[in-house]
Amino acid sequence: MGMFDLSATTGVKESGRFLQAGIHNAKFIGVELGDVHSQNKNQDYKTMKLTLDIDGYGEFTHNFFEPTSAERSSGTFGENPSQVEHFMVAVRQICDALSPEIGEAIDNNNVVVNGKKVNLKSLDFTQLVKLVGILTKPYSGTEVEVKLVPQSNGFAAIPGFPAKISRNGALSIATRFIGHDLVMNQSEQKKIDAAKNAQPTNMAQTTTGSVEGLADALGIDTAAEDSSDLPF
User: Fold this and answer.
1) pTM for this model (two decimals)
2) What pLDDT digit, counting tens, does each position of 72-121 carry?
3) Is residue 54 classed as helix, strand or coil in its secondary structure?
4) Count of alpha carbons within 13 Å of 51, Cβ hemisphere only?
5) pLDDT tens-digit profile of 6-28?
6) Which domain range does residue 178 map to?
7) Are residues 44 and 23 in contact, defined by beta-carbon separation less than 8 angstroms?
């Protein structure tokens, strides 16, 4: 029996690299605690894993990494949000997209799980992610929109900096990535336009002048096309 089995390709699809940037209709599946292993650093990182079912694509997962700093930084136009603030705004956006009741409970400091009031100011990362998972679980299957923008690695992903600091120092939303009636801001639209206008490398136009020339340079004999060994 040969090693090549074409039936193994049944049901394969393009990965996230080919998921187009833009605003997509989707269904919320869930939030859970995850982890990502870095081979370069040989280290594991905790994440909040958001899973959606995107129309025309299928299951899509985005990992929000555990923040390592609660300190704001200085920028050209004022303060920048801390990693923790970006993460908390992301969490709030997910909750608000699914049910206003969750947000109201947070605002009123009245989040209750299994009959017990949750102290929202004493949660660590793991506890917070598990709490979000519990609060959002009843809304699995809820229809939402999700915003994906081009990344430098070629993937389309959820914007990485959803928060901003207002002129009076208040935490606010820079871009809404999940919810309803989403819109692209100017910066995001520029990234999408740039990705659309990017020209792929034309492998037929090389320094060798043609595909045949490239084959010669690689030592490939394009004239040898003997099919006598095929089993059909």
Assistant:
1) 0.78
2) 999 888 899 999 999 999 999 999 999 999 999 999 999 999 999 999 99
3) strand
4) 12
5) 888 887 765 544 788 999 999 99
6) 15-184
7) no
> Phi and psi at residue 196, in whole multiples of 5°?
-70, -35
Is residue 148 in a domain?
Answer: yes
Closest C-alpha among 109, 61, 81, 97 to residue 173: 81
Is the residue at 121 inside a domain?
yes
| Tokens found for residue 112 | 């209750």
Q: What are the two backbone dihedrals, phi and then psi, of residue 55, each rounded to the nearest 5 degrees?
A: -55, 130
The tally of domains found in the chain comes to 1
Q: Which positions ≥6 away from 183 have C-beta within 8 Å?
A: 23
CA separation for the pair 57, 155 (Å, rounded) = 14
User: Each residue of 184-207: b (16+ CB within 10 Å) or e?
Assistant: beeebeebbeeeeeeeeeeeeeee
Query: What is the C-alpha to C-alpha distance for residues 221 and 215, in angstroms, rounded to an integer?
Result: 7
